[in-house]
Amino acid sequence: MNPLIIHAHSSHVNKVIFSPNEKFLVSAGFSGELKLWDVENGELLQRFEGHTKTVNGIEFADQGETLLSGSADGSFRKWNVATGECTDTLNEQKKGIGSLILAKDQSFVVTSSPDYMLAVRPLPEGEISNRIKADKKNVGIMALNQSSTLVATGGMGNYIRFYNVSTGNLVTSIDAHDTAVMSFQFFDNDEKGVSIGYMGDVKVWDLQKNEVLRECKIGEKGYYSLDVSPDETQVAISMPYQVSLLNLHDLEEDSILYVKPKGNYGISYSPSGQYLGLASADKRVRVWRMNTK
Questions:
Q1: Phi and psi, residue 64, nearest 5°
Q2: Domain ranges within the chain, ordered by starting residue
Q3: Do 20 and 271 contact (CB within 8 A), yes or no?
Q4: Are 227 and 269 contacting, i.e. CB atoms less than 8 angstroms apart?
Q5: How confident is the model at residue 292 (pLDDT cuts 50, 70, 90)?
Q6: Which of 22, 171, 192, 248 is deepest in the core (most CB within 10 A)?
Q7: Quick one: which of 262, 285, 243, 290 has its CA closest to 15?
Q8: Its pTM surpasses 0.90
Q9: Rg (CA), the chain
Q10: What is the mean pLDDT of residues 130-145?
């Protein structure tokens, strides 16, 4: 499969997401760059100008009419997608926002920063209502479960930890990977999860028992990120020089998508699974049209 390659940014691209209708994608990167693209032809449709440092988290809201973003410049912003106008800005996290996830019902977002491993922001206001101080460097949120009651955190260190969103209490933790947990996602009605570590080991978890169901090794030390396909049959993993597509049920390799850059970061399926997007260090976004039934 040959991807659509978009020459997107002036520096690294670290995040990419698709709009709910799959007609558009947004890319986020260094120097505050945040852009909207046509999925079919790669045409630049909009620039969202206002962030001054790396944009680390992006989410569509309001059926794709609103874009939410969090940046290393410390600001949480809302944007009108059609006009590119910034409609709201909150600047209370001076050390920056490292990640951002929107709840399924869009009633709140959770963010991470160097100071706060987890901060809950009710919408539409977006001001922090509950927070958990960071007890380690480079640890933050990775995923919300389907009911948006549980948030998974990871990063430097061996553990994936699960917190109750409402109370901020630690629910449970898993000794998951050596050195660092790079990425994690829930699936199968939140009864299972899949994670990848810094050493290139992939693990599927029974979250009811906190036990490994299956595991494999796909690489050496490096940066990895993953996303689960909407039908939950496949996990896509970005890694140096390639994207690995694994069957989620047995972790056998379905396919490898080779790319030129060593640094590959955010990876995302579109809502139906028709497209797969990759953000890379070579300033480009790649979009594959997947074989869907």
A1: 90, 0
A2: 4-289
A3: yes
A4: yes
A5: low
A6: 248
A7: 285
A8: yes
A9: 18
A10: 89
Angle at 61 between CA 59 and CA 64, to 5 degrees: 100
| Spatial separation of the C-alpha atoms in residues 71 and 19, rounded to whole Å | 20
Tokens 């939410």 belong to which residue? 68
Tell me the two tokens of residue 140. 């933050």
The CA distance from 119 to 168, in Å, is 9
Torsion 280-100-200-268 (CA) sign: negative
**Average pLDDT in the 217-223 region?**
94
Q: Domain 4-289 falls in which CATH fold?
A: Methylamine Dehydrogenase; Chain H (2.130.10)
pLDDT at residue 112 is higher than 90: yes
Instruction: Report whether 229 contacts 236 (CB < 8 A).
Output: yes
Give 261's Cβ-side CA count (13 Å radius): 20
Q: Are strands 139-144 and 150-155 parallel, antiparallel or unpaired?
A: antiparallel
Look at the block and give the residue holding tokens 């960071």: 134
pLDDT of residue 98: 93
Gap between the Cα atoms of 140 and 113, Å rounded: 7
